[in-house]
């Protein structure tokens, strides 16, 4: 009969072996692009009707590099996008967990709403896997943080969902401009088309409006500024410590929004600017002329603003009446007309949803981005 100490050491050896095996087995498995369902070859990224997190959303650790060497030149773009995608995936996952089919029917939404949200959640899981695989083996693949989303009622959930999909076009067209490798530009454009389909479904089926955004969606060159504007959704200190800084490079500009008493966000409306983060306020130099710059379609329009009395005297600006009331308008504050460089931006950007107009306004009241 084995003595207790022998049993213990045998057990310890087994446990150690298990530990070594699991540490050794898990990260390299995920680091291997052929591990698990492959996007484009598996239908779980479309048709999976469970509530449990689909692969790779069910693995929450970052994936460590498996090779030594310099990062590929576009790795940081995919890392930024993967970190943003974790937020979007979680938004859908938590919505799928939180709301029932009946919740959506009760607020007048079609009976297929829950199924579609699951399908979008599955597409977003596919994006997680695609972005993980686009990052080269010499770079870390960031893991998820904890997020706080407005999940109180099904209507505001669908409103925020619509704004996420509509604004994803703006930062994806921006990331395309950052990418150096042609293949990556094409891949980013392909992802933006998927988001466009999600958006189109929401506009037609949920909100019963025309899905078209005029002849061109709004393209915005400083993608990281939009990514940073979502940082209020991340629970502070909740990200895996190994994750790279998000987004990288980081400007940490003061957030910009419209004051709560705003009556309209349509072209021609007068807005009172609100800088909602007391810890991150813009500092205006008294000898500099600042502009509110509005990006719409492929154009931008600059309106000089009066900053001298801020914060005692609020800053107001008129949304250019010349903009078509379609899609989105992106507004920011810059110290140069046309915000020709990312360094010229001093606050914002804010995404203004023009369509459906009532939704854009409702989001001002609730604030899509708690800071
Ligand atoms: C995640 O999902 C995959 C595929 O469905 C499964 O093989 C794997 O065991 C799951 N992993 C965890 C940690 O839940
Ligand atoms: C805004 O438009 C001006 C004039 O057409 C252009 O010079 C400038 O580069 C544009 N800004 C951006 C950020 O594209």
Looking at the structure, what is the overall shape? globular
Rounded to an integer in angstroms, the radius of gyration calculated over CA atoms is: 23 Å
Cross-sheet strand order for the largest sheet: 4-3-6-7
- Average pLDDT: 91
Number of helices, counting only DSSP H or I runs of 4 residues or more: 8
Task: Please state the structural category.
Answer: alpha+beta
- Spans of 5+ residues with little confidence (pLDDT < 50)? none
Which compounds are bound in this model?
A: 2-acetamido-2-deoxy-beta-D-glucopyranose
Helix content: 25-40%
Topology as a string of helices (H) and strands (E): HHHHHHHEEEEEEEH
> Could you tell me how far the N terminus lies from the C terminus, measured between alpha carbons in angstroms?
65 Å
Biggest β-sheet, characterized?
4 strands, antiparallel
Whole-number total of structural domains = 2
The proportion of strand residues reads 5-15%
Strands, count: 7
Protein name: Ferritin-like domain-containing protein
Keywords: Signal
Organism: Staphylotrichum tortipilum
Pfam families: Ferritin_2
């Amino acid at each position: 009969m084995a003595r207790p100490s022998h049993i213990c050491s045998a057990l310890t050896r087994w446990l150690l072996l298990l530990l070594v095996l699991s540490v050794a087995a898990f990260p390299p498995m995920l680091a291997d692009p052929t591990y698990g369902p492959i996007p484009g070859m598996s239908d779980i990224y479309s048709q999976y009707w469970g509530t449990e997190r689909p692969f790779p959303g069910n693995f929450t650790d970052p994936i460590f590099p498996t090779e030594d060497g310099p990062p590929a030149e576009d790795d940081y773009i995919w890392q930024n996008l993967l970190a943003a995608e974790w937020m979007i995936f979680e938004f859908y996952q938590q919505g799928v967990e939180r709301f029932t089919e009946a919740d959506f029917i009760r607020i007048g939404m079609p009976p297929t709403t829950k199924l579609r949200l699951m399908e979008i959640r599955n597409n977003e899981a596919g994006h997680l896997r695609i972005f993980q695989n686009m990052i080269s083996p010499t770079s870390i693949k960031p893991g998820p943080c904890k997020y706080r989303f407005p999940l109180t009622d099904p209507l505001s959930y669908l409103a925020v969902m619509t704004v996420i999909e509509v604004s994803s076009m703006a930062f994806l067209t921006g990331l395309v401009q950052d990418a150096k490798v042609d293949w990556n530009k094409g891949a980013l454009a392909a992802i933006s088309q998927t988001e466009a389909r999600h958006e189109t479904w929401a506009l037609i089926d949920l909100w019963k409006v025309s899905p078209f955004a005029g002849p061109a969606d709004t393209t915005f060159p400083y993608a990281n500024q939009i990514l940073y504007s979502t940082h209020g959704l991340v629970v502070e200190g909740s990200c895996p410590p190994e994750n790279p800084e998000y987004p990288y490079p980081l400007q940490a500009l003061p957030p910009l929004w419209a004051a709560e008493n705003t009556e309209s966000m349509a072209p021609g409306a007068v807005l009172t600017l609100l800088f909602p983060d007391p810890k991150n306020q813009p500092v205006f130099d008294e000898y500099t002329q600042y502009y509110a710059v509005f990006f719409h379609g492929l154009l931008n329009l600059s309106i000089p603003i009066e900053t001298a009395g801020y914060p005692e005297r609020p800053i107001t600006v008129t949304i250019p009446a010349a903009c078509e009331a379609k899609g989105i308008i992106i507004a920011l504050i810059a110290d140069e007309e046309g915000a020709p460089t990312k360094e010229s931006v001093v606050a914002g950007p804010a995404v203004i949803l023009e369509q459906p107009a009532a939704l854009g306004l409702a989001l001002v009241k609730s604030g899509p981005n708690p800071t």
